[in-house]
Amino acid sequence: EVQLVESGGGLVQPGGSLRLSCAASGFTFSSYWMHWVRQAPGKGLVWVSRIHSNGSSTTYADSVKGRFTISRDNGKNTLYLQMNSLRAEDTAVYYCVRESQDSSSWLRAFDIWGQGTMVTVSS
Amino acid sequence: DIQMTQSPSSLSASVGDRLTITCRASQSISSYLNWYQQKPGKAPKLLIYAASSLQSGVPSRFSGSGSGTDFTLTISSLQPEDFATYYCQQSYTTPRTFGQGTNVDIK
């Protein structure tokens, strides 16, 4: 079964740090770009960060640039999100997402999502 | 960044209704447009990719159309399990921006 399982969420004080992990199984993890998407309580979906299949390239939303770091270990089939200098506005469910692509078509879509892990930033 | 604007933001409908949700991009995105369905407490699910291609396992009552800047998601006959929030997303460039969502509830 193709799946993504996040872990590492929890309650952290403003200014603190947290590292999220996402364990992939059922597919060739090293072949896919991976993303983090977050959703604040009662709000919409917001893209956070992306990493190339081999880890060579990363991109971040302006709201997290300089504070968050995305990485991956293809040998362990695991995606990470290191979150530093956390703020109250970072409170959200964080989803690990696989992006499927096909260079011969317009396919670039988030086809596999994890169940999400909740991050709460509060004193 | 490309802005995605959905309309309406919410709507009430009945089982059996034909439903259309629109999504407009702030610049041309060719056919790099996806639609997702999200139910409360659950992760989003991919419904339509590349503007009009149905994801495997998604019922045929769902369809998508459009290219450039204007897109639509249509549900031909609304079923009880379709009451949810729907999001469009552009995958033309990074950041992969989403629309604000359309909440579909029971009339």
Task: Give a brief rundown of this model.
The complex is a heterodimer of chains A (123) and B (107). Chain A is mainly β and 123 residues long.
Could you explain how this protein is built, in words?
The complex is a heterodimer of chains A (123) and B (107). Chain A has 123 residues and is mainly β. Helix content of chain A is 0%, strand content 54%. Chain A contains no helices and eleven strands. In chain A, strands 2, 4, 5, 6, 9, 10 and 11 form a seven-stranded mixed beta sheet that branches. Chain B has a six-stranded mixed beta sheet, with no helix packed on it. A four-stranded antiparallel beta sheet of chain B has the order 1-3-8-7, with no helix packed on it. Chain B is mostly beta strands and 107 residues long. The model of chain B has no long low-confidence stretch (mean pLDDT 97). The radius of gyration of chain B is 13 Å and the shape is globular. The relative contact order of chain B is 0.35. At the A-B interface, strand 5, strand 9 and strand 10 of A face strand 4 and strand 5 of B.
Structural features:
heterodimer; A: 123 residues; mainly beta; seven-stranded mixed beta sheet; four-stranded antiparallel beta sheet; 54% strand; B: 107 residues; six-stranded mixed beta sheet; 10 strands; 0% helix
Question: Which secondary structure elements does this structure contain, and how are they paired or packed?
Answer:
The complex is a heterodimer of chains A (123) and B (107).
Chain A: E1 3-7, E2 10-12, E3 18-25, E4 33-39, E5 45-51, E6 58-60, E7 68-73, E8 78-83, E9 92-101, E10 108-113, E11 117-121
Parallel strand pairs in A: 2-11
Antiparallel strand pairs in A: 1-3, 3-8, 4-5, 4-9, 5-6, 7-8, 9-10, 9-11
Chain B: E1 4-7, E2 10-13, E3 19-25, E4 33-38, E5 45-49, E6 53-54, E7 62-67, E8 70-75, E9 85-90, E10 102-106
Parallel strand pairs in B: 2-10
Antiparallel strand pairs in B: 1-3, 3-8, 4-5, 4-9, 5-6, 7-8, 9-10
